[in-house]
Amino acid sequence: MVDVSRVSPTSWTTLLPIVTALAVPVAWGRDLPLLAVALIGALLGGAVLAAVHHAEVVALRVGEPYGSLVLAVAVTVIEVALIVTLMFSGGGDAATLARDTVFAAVMITCNGIVGLSLLAGTIRQNVALFSAEGAGAAMATVTTLATLALVLPTFTTSAQGPVFSAPQLMFAAVVSLGLYGLFVIVQTGRHRDYFLPTTAEGAPLPDDAHVERPSARVAGISLALLLVALVAVVGTAKLVSPAVERGVVAAGMPLTVVGIVIALLILLPETLAATRAARRAKMQISLNLAYGSAMASIGLTIPTMAVISPWLPTPLHLGLGNVHLVLLALTAVVSVLTVVPGRATLLQAGVHLSLLATYLFLSVSP
Q1: Is 49 exposed, middle or buried, given 0-12, 13-18 or 19+ CB atoms closer than 10 A?
Q2: What is the pTM (predicted TM-score) of this model?
């Protein structure tokens, strides 16, 4: 249970994010030995756990679905900043970085986080319950955004290759940002009850009466520490990426695997938070985190890329290849069949996790 009565300055949830964040500038730009990489990896794991803790404290203060929204948007904003940094420093090799990262986020969230959450929920309760209206609306938004940003560039003809022309990219950016903003308004406004955990009869679950609501001061400190932890997660992920890249090259795997590994590390806080919510029979919170992260990843990345595209060293390749198009289409169909009934079993968990495994295997062995 999360202790929300106070924030101790000597607690590991306070110290680890700060120590990890301070380690980033110290190690930045250096050729790290294996022992240092292992130490940074350990700090990374601690920062992830601390981020989950502080996200839960903030969620208890603001309630759902605002709590899920805070974590999803915070992680995605920092993820976008990392993508921009790597694209400016990667030269021509970074042409597909935004596409690979966004697609990895979509596959990890819609199949990995959803699959693990369903697995955790159905093992304890046999059947996972959630709001079909909320999950269906979220999945429809994710599918539309993914098609607009990752599928259409493969088939447009105004520019050569899987790229948008400048007007097309600006149009996609405006529509993506507008659609994401509209979803947030619906999620937090007039249809907020669609995104709350539900009972077997479809009624929203009451808040945990035995859980103390944190004070505004405690929640504010946790929000600040959450942002520090997320910055530390992204920074340490960037530090360990050269070691990961060397290992990938030594194993003869494509360099796109590096982006997948980094995406997996960055999405760890949401994965753990979603799994915990599912174990407490609050599957809707898990789906809010999963689909909200996918939407934020597209809805914030594409507008950012559109703004900076004139200064990028290479055209922005957004269109997916044939194999990834098939996987995206299959994910969309399976996700619709999962969310429409408003209840899911262990079978749906296995299907989603199988899709994630297929994506990861084909990325390693294309």
Answers
A1: middle
A2: 0.81
If you average pLDDT over every residue of the chain, what do you get? 82
Question: Quick one: pLDDT band at residue 143, thresholds 50, 70, 90?
Answer: very high
Q: Return the top range by mean pLDDT from 153-157, 238-242, 313-317.
A: 153-157
| Contacts with 323 (C-beta within 8 Å, 6 or more apart), sequence order | 362, 366
CB 356 within 8 A of CB 112: yes
Task: Output the DSSP codes for 120-173.
Answer: HHHHHHSSEE--HHHHHHHHHHHHHHHIIIIIHHHH--SSSSS---HHHHHHHH
The answer to whether residues 265 and 85 touch, using CB atoms and an 8 Å cutoff, is no
Residue in the block written with tokens 């809010």: 288
Residues 124 and 197: their CA atoms lie apart, in Å, by 16
pLDDT at 3: 53
CB 67 within 8 A of CB 219: no
129 backbone dihedrals φ, ψ, rounded to 5°: -110, 140
- Confidence band (pLDDT; 50, 70, 90) for 209? very low
Is the bond preceding 65 in cis, omega lying within 30 degrees of 0? Answer: yes
Are 4 and 214 in contact by the 8 Å Cβ rule? The answer is: yes
CA–CA dist 211, 209 (Å, integer): 6
- Kindly list the distances between the CA atom of residue 34 and the CA atoms of 17, 189, 240, 297, 317, in Å, as whole numbers in the listed order: 22, 50, 10, 32, 34
